[in-house]
Amino acid sequence: FTSSGSVYSSIHGFSQEEIKEKLLAFPGGSIDLLKQDSGIAVLTINNPPRMNAFSGAMMVDLEEKVTQLENWTDGKGVIVQGAAQTFCSGSDLNAVRAMLPLISVALVEGNALGGGAELTTACDFR
Ligand SMILES: CC[C@@H](C(=O)O)C(=O)SCCNC(=O)CCNC(=O)[C@H](O)C(C)(C)COP(=O)(O)OP(=O)(O)OC[C@H]1O[C@@H](n2cnc3c(N)ncnc32)[C@H](O)[C@@H]1OP(=O)(O)O
User: Fold this and answer.
1) Residues 6+ apart with CB under 8 A from 66
2) Of 12, 82, 14, which Cα lies nearest the Cα of 43?
3) How far apart are alpha carbons 30 and 3 in whole angstroms?
4) Which residues line ligand 1 (CB under 6 A)?
5) ipTM score here?
6) How far is the CA of 14 from the centre of ligand 1 (A)?
7) Is Lyase one of the keywords (predicted)?
8) Residue 19 in contact with residue 33, Cβ under 8 Å?
9) Counting Cβ atoms within 10 Å, is residue 5 exposed (0-12), middle (13-18) or buried (19+)?
10) pLDDT digits (tens, 9 = 90+) for 68-123
């Protein structure tokens, strides 16, 4: 359930445009990008009514804003924050229920470090 839609595109054969269309069916919220003269940008996850959960539209928005940052030649760093005194409550559960192809569980025994830790967070449950 990534913004690039890799799970859907590789397993279900959808194109990037089809993934985008499916994600946009779940509107609400925004990802706001402020690029400052200092070279530091502020990226705000903005969906306070749902504790800043990521709607499908916000996932599309995030990919666009990350692309903008990648092409920002004067950029030095980015601060990621949540609006309204909360960071983010994960994916919008309404969208998850409608779109999740399968549920993944990371069964972690022993260390999960670096990329291993990231892999656990990419799973739905740990
Ligand atoms: C498979 C995807 C996976 C991933 O990408 O890795 C996920 O992220 S799945 C989502 C995981 N997140 C959660 O399970 C968080 C669920 N939310 C909560 O546990 C709580 O809401 C909270 C974040 C701890 C805050 O609790 P509290 O301060 O008591 O506020 P409320 O519970 O009353 O929430 C206010 C309002 O926000 C809605 N909400 C919160 N989180 C989500 C969400 N992830 N998706 C959709 N909506 C969310 C919540 O339903 C309330 O709405 P109303 O009832 O309409 O007021």
Assistant:
1) 3
2) 82
3) 14
4) 1, 50-51, 53, 89-94, 96, 100, 124
5) 0.97
6) 28
7) yes
8) no
9) buried
10) 999 999 999 999 999 999 999 999 999 888 887 788 999 999 999 999 999 999 99
